[in-house]
Amino acid sequence: MMAEKPVKFVIFLSLILSLVAFWDHQFTSYLKEFVVLIHEICHATAALFSGGVVKGIALHGNEGGETIAVPASFRGSFILVVSAGYIGSSLVGAFLLRLGFQGRHARQTMILFGLFLISVSVLYSKLGDLAYFTGIFWGVGILVTGMLGETISILSLVFLGTSISLYSLYDLSDFAERLTETDAGILAFWMAGLGPEDLQNQEVPTVVVILGYMIATLWSLLSIGIIFMSLRSSLSHEESHEIPEMEESFERFPGDLSPEAKLWLEKRGVDPESGIVLPPNLFQDFPPKDNSP
Question: What are the TM regions of this chain, as residue ranges (predicted)?
Fold first, then answer.
């Protein structure tokens, strides 16, 4: 089980400060590409679960990516698939962070997560593309880490969960800078009844801007809420102390006991009939029986 609340908070805060301090470092760029891949995998997963088809996942090397998918025929499937990128990333980050802080099934989670990344990269990204190398590199690394032991798996889950959650929140800044190029803008164009060719127009219709900001606000609130609730629950999680069941012995004493022997055993917390040894304080409120003739 992970450490108590103050230690959990120190670990989380240290990771946040470290990531912010090295936000523009080369290593962090690899981490950002990994989180972008998670974003795209969430789109693909939503498409598959809603009955659609995924044709490919790609990363562009500028913290951008795309998922080429054909959603299912029902109208809500497109909304689900487009919304899954930001919301799904927040859910993944919150889930990994919670598991890491709770310290439950850390090794199994790391191994399954690594295998999942490798499988998705092989199936839906082109050999030699950035998405392929990113998925294989991180997938193998996570898989191997899960095989090294429980402690390192727990720390890795906390690191991955913190990184994905932090970048998911940082990614929301795209809504303010380039709304029409984000998933919120794409969904706004679709809800306004406009096609892909309209995305190229320099002048964005007012209805698209309004819808885009409404969608972006909703997604932002959901993402922040998911991460906040998970973090709050993780930091306040305490190990439950279960009282072990008392071992009972049902061995009976051989032969018949005299009244004096029974009285002597009862005074010492032993049931003379069954031989069960009970806690001494259990007899404080129950004086021994008078078995004198």
Answer: 6-23, 78-97, 109-124, 130-149, 207-231
Dihedral of the CA atoms 135, 137, 139, 141 (nearest 10)?
-160
Please give the pLDDT value at position 26. Answer: 72
Distance from CA of residue 197 to its chain's centroid?
38
Whether 234 contacts 98, CB under 8 Å: yes
Residue 105, pLDDT > 70, answer yes
Write the CB contacts of 189 (distance below 8 Å, at least 6 apart in sequence). Answer: 180, 195, 198, 199, 208
What's phi and psi for 277, nearest 5 deg? Answer: -95, 120
Q: What is the pTM of this model?
A: 0.73
Average pLDDT, stretch 199-219?
A: 81
Q: Which of 10-14, 51-55, 91-95, 216-220 has the lowest mean pLDDT?
A: 10-14
- Helix, strand, or coil (residue 270): strand
Give Cα separations from 263 to 173, 259, 276, 291 (angstroms).
Answer: 79, 6, 15, 7
Delimit the domains of the chain by residue range: 7-237, 256-292
Among 48, 151, 87, 125, residue whose Cα is nearest residue 138: 125
In which residue are the tokens 């962090």 written? 28
